[in-house]
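Folds abound. A case:
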Amino acid sequence: MPHHLFKCSETIPERKKHCVIKGKGEDLTSALPLGYLNTIPGSISERGCAYCGAKHVIGTPMKDVIHISHGPVGCTYDTWQTKRYISDDGNFQLKYTFATDVKEKHIVFGAEKLLKQNIIEAFKAHPHIKRMTIYQTCATALIGDDINAIAQEVMEELPDVDIFVCNSPGFAGPSQSGGHHKINIAWVNEKVGTVEPEITSDYVINYVGEYNIQGDQEVMLDYFKRMGIQVLSTFTGNGRYDDLRAMHRAHLNVLECARSAEYICNELRIRYGTPRLDIDGFGFKALGDSLRKVGLFFGIEDRALKIIEEETARWKPELDWYKERLRGKKVCLWPGGSKLWHWAHAIEEEMGVKVVSVYTKFGHQGDMEKGIARCGEGAMAIDDPNELEGLEALEQLKPDIIFTGKRPGEVAKKVRVPYLNAHAYHNGPWKGFEGWVRFARDIYNAVYSPIHQLSGIDISKDEFATDRGFVTQRMMSDVKLPEDLRNSPTLRRYTGAYDSVTPLRSKTYPEFPRKTATAAAE
């Protein structure tokens, strides 16, 4: 059996079925862990709740909306400003967060009056915002507050505002993925079809499952614009509330994150007949194939091919430079649901790294199937790991870097494993052709960070070199790059500027003799 039980979880034997190590010749029937099940009591999960999945992941990227949580203030604070969902309206939705601040007395006597008061106060405080989303939390769901009725009362009193209600308390699913489903279906039921848009192109799409992390969306919108495609709405990165009410008029739903937003695409297909096309904005080949598919659907493949040719010629030499220096580096791919399989094969093929582990805290069986299928022999796949299991996996696998969220990433740093933030990025955007090079650059900078290399040295007893931190400069001096690549803004900015092909080390950094701590003291 390929199942693996961590030593730290021996007292919870049920956890064994949630981890597998892919053996030689094994297919998905024997190398698939259980997934998207209720957390086993005692395993101390680090999952997000359904409320978090609805508000933090999908709702908050809408830019012209007051996002208010009906519940204790801690729920709101936990879902505020921890992802980089930038917008072009001054980042209103990131600057402000709203909560009814429910306390014990409201649990006893009800909090509907409190909710109405907060809604009206919020609109008065921000008169230029006329749209609101109300999120249900565990506390107010348990006492039965009728949020929909209160929202309707306010809309009758303030006819120029519109309010969307998302009943997604934390217990609405095994993880935050349950909240994804709740808000997808609620939006279709309550708001889609209530606004008629202006159509300006023969090719009209909804860009679904895109949240504009550090500008990802803008990269993709540029490609669509160059192809002559009108993006009617983006669900929900930098999205306008009223644009998303007009989703029913698109000719095609282009789906990026199938884990968080396939539900709304499926409903739009059933109710309005809108086709769904899954794409991938990460990786040269995957992105190129995706643009071609969209082009083929509309009969404008030639426009997509032109973009692919131009962008590949511009950025492929830089990607190859990083690939040579990242080849063989071991990676633990521990992100959310869809990046598990969006990245697994692409980073191995196009960056030269080796994926030694995949995990997800809220992904479904389908995510694991696609992720594991794109991994090689010996890869460890884990569902819903806790901190101790993560540390044990790091000790066993000894990766050079992990891609994960902030919480497990900061734990990894304590055992001297660098990480990149797979949820909010380090120096994104990472989508698009240039973005993929930027991702490779961030991996390179993390793996070869001088500070990271020096952090593992015990200067009281280890032999060390005073030039330990200059690996990057040496690597740059070991190759004579073409003139256009040496003058690349990306390389000059992030890995050192060139004035000539003279090695940097001979110009600036002399060879230092190796010293021991004893010799240095003498």
User: Anything to note?
Assistant: The two ends are 58 Å apart (CA to CA). The chain has a mean pLDDT of 88.
